[in-house]
Write a structure and sequence with these properties.
alpha+beta; two-stranded antiparallel sheet
Length: 78
């Protein structure tokens, strides 16, 4: 089971994510902010205020993404 263990805001809607399998990926969520719960996250100041909660990233309004989705759309970096 893939899990997020650490995440850092980069720029725009990009986040550097460290996964429990040792991989690190850059995830661009600019195309993923669809739906009412994600509307507030289109504001970059709100977007960058996420935390790692349980096994993924989460925002104060309850918005989150499945860690498997983040892993799937992420671009692997060294």
């Amino acid at each position: 089971m893939i899990e997020v263990i650490k995440a850092n805001y980069l720029t725009g809607f990009k986040i550097e994510i460290f996964f429990n399998n040792g991989e690190k990926k850059v995830v661009d969520l600019s195309e993923s902010l669809i739906g009412k719960v994600f509307q507030p996250l289109k504001n970059p100041e709100t977007f960058k205020k996420f935390t790692v909660h349980f096994n993924t990233i989460e925002w104060d309004n309850g918005a989150d993404f499945a860690p498997e989705y983040l892993y799937e759309i992420g671009k692997k970096i060294s």
